[in-house]
Design brief:
It contains ten helices and seven strands. By secondary structure, it is an alpha/beta fold. The two termini are 19 Å apart. This is HAD family hydrolase.
């Protein structure tokens, strides 16, 4: 079957966030706060365990006072910031301004890397005349990240949860993306890494394909099967 459109998730599918250590070191350096390397590693590990890095490991435990905002964190920008800075505040960092600075850092293109095969796959789909959309549970505008890596021109439509007040697996987001491509959901393939969230596209009739949420170095060609699945050509 040849699909007329392909939708992609963002984090863990097309792009991967930096490590917690890199995230923290960048903010400490920018803030001019000197922390011994062993302490940086300790803080980073604790932040990772709490799930404070958006796009990073899920929290091992969500504190009861954050449970409500965590459940709807991707439905609004303020909710997203409150959820993740709230988790970060479970770790006592050396300066109070670091919590918001860490959150701000994760929204910059420098904090993200595209998977090695992302440009190849998007370009191949585009050249085959297949529409491309991005559907993401997120609390901020990710378009500058795509522009920074030269991938924005390959995307026809973005549907971001915080802009619509609903989050995946709500079928409304996928419907908006299919409409943005001008395609019937049955002619659209959804590619993501979260079986619950991204699997919501199946409710509309989209075919769904999952990739593994791994570090960039550990998944050099995880997107390439999409070329064949979408009917854009065989794997080289």
């Amino acid at each position: 079957m040849t699909f007329k459109g392909v939708l992609f998730d963002f984090s863990g599918t097309l792009f991967r966030i930096e490590s917690a250590g890199s995230w923290l070191r960048a903010v400490l350096d920018e803030s001019g706060i000197a922390v011994p390397p062993d302490e940086v590693r300790r803080y980073a590990m604790m932040l990772a365990v709490t799930g404070a890095l958006p796009g990073g490991p899920s929290p091992q435990r969500v504190p009861p006072e954050l449970a409500d905002v965590w459940a709807v964190r991707d439905s609004g920008a303020e909710l997203h910031r409150a959820a993740y800075t709230g988790l970060a505040r479970q770790v006592e960092l050396p300066a109070p301004g670091l919590y918001d600075a860490l959150y701000d850092r994760h929204m910059t293109p420098a904090a993200w890397r595209p998977y090695t095969d992302a440009a190849e796959v998007l370009s191949t789909l585009r050249h085959a005349g297949i529409g491309i959309g991005v559907v993401s549970n997120i609390g901020w505008d990710l378009r500058p990240v795509f522009r920074a890596y030269g991938l924005d021109a390959l995307v026809d439509t973005y549907v971001l949860s915080y802009e619509h007040g609903v989050q995946k697996p709500d079928a409304r987001l996928f419907r908006m993306a299919c409409e943005g491509l001008g395609q019937d959901p049955h002619d659209v393939l959804m590619v993501g890494d979260d079986r619950r969230a991204d699997g919501g596209a199946a409710e509309l009739g989209c075919t769904v394909h999952f990739v593994d949420h791994l570090p960039v170095e550990e998944r050099p060609a995880g997107l390439r099967p999409v070329i064949t699945l979408a009917g854009a050509g065989p794997l080289a």
